[in-house]
Amino acid sequence: xxxxxxxxxxxxxxxxxxxxxxxGSFALKDVDCFYCLLGPGSNTGIRLGLTIPRTIYAFNPKxxxxxxxxxxxxxxxxxxxxLSDRNGNLFYAxxxxxxxxxxxxxxxxxxxxxxxxxxxVEEKDDMAIDELAGYDLKKVNVLSLxxxxxxxxxxxxxxxxxxxxEYIMKI
Length: 171
Hints:
Elements: H1 13-24, E1 33-37, H2 43-59, E2 64-68, H3 70-74, E3 80-84, E4 90-96, E5 99-105, E6 119-122, H4 126-131, E7 137-140, H5 142-148, E8 154-155, H6 166-170
Parallel strand pairs: 1-2, 6-7
Antiparallel strand pairs: 2-8, 3-4, 4-5
């Protein structure tokens, strides 16, 4: 479902939800679980992705809410991952001994990253793919990965107060 410019997605949220329900032949009242990425990523996108289920949860506390930090999800497919911040800078993650850590890499410093081993990137993240030209990239579809790795998500249904995006915890 493409709602056009991601920066204007907030304005089209209701339309997007209606179209998704129509396309899937279901009503919003039939939705019993939400799976969300907790960042890093577009602040607007993450806030939007978290606000919708929290709002519905306020009216229907039977809805289950699940979340996972984006870099943790990407690192289920390899020990290194990257995603762009829309300005050509990257969030770069490494998994060591099962723990994922990440940091921001300025656009001017991207080529200083080690070239050993594949870096997992979202297949539609053209900016990250361009910035990492010359690197061994493993391109994944994040939506498919979310479905495949459903068990990796944390259930926040009983602890909605800790349901915060990753970027808020880093501030």
